[in-house]
Design a protein that fits this description.
Blueprint: E1 5-9, H1 17-27, E2 32-38, E3 51-58, E4 61-67, E5 81-86, H2 89-100, E6 105-111, E7 124-129, E8 135-140
Parallel strand pairs: 1-4, 5-8
Antiparallel strand pairs: 2-3, 3-4, 6-7, 7-8
Length: 142
């Protein structure tokens, strides 16, 4: 059995999936876009400029994307996020800065929270949302 995170770009994010996966695969090491399949002209669910399904990997972990121009009552939420952990401070800081910049949103600055409601995760912890609405948590492990 294989489980894969599947990101569906809807609403204001519909049409931005290809930009997002191009961005992600350029900032994460050992990453690539494996495939992109777009909707056929007249095919239900989307239009030819939208991704029907795509596959990409970030440092060896595989993800899938899709876009839907239907009027969905949902979109991305911080309740589900991608957790990035590593023991290299420079890498964690660099990824956090890139993900949270350019119209992203910082929900928790990447800091050491010991003594301030210590989350107990590691040396540093941060949480942000990228400009596409996807939430990311960053953990500097000890």
């Amino acid at each position: 059995m294989i489980t894969t995170t599947f990101l569906t770009f809807v609403g204001n994010q519909c049409g931005k999936a290809e930009e997002a996966i191009n961005f992600y695969t350029t900032i994460f090491p050992n990453s690539e876009i494996k495939s992109i399949t777009k909707y056929a002209d007249g095919e239900p669910g989307g239009t030819p400029e939208l991704i029907k399904y795509g596959v990409f990997s970030l440092n060896g972990s595989e993800y899938m994307v899709s876009e839907s121009n239907y009027n969905h009552a949902w979109s991305f939420t911080p309740a589900v996020s991608i957790l990035i952990s590593d023991n290299a401070n420079d890498l964690i800081q660099s990824l956090y800065d890139k993900i949270s910049s350019n119209d992203g949103q910082v929900m928790m600055p990447l800091e050491n929270y010991k003594g301030e409601g210590d989350y107990g995760f590691g040396e540093k912890f941060g949480w942000c949302q990228d400009k596409f609405g996807v939430s990311w948590q960053f953990l500097l492990t000890e």
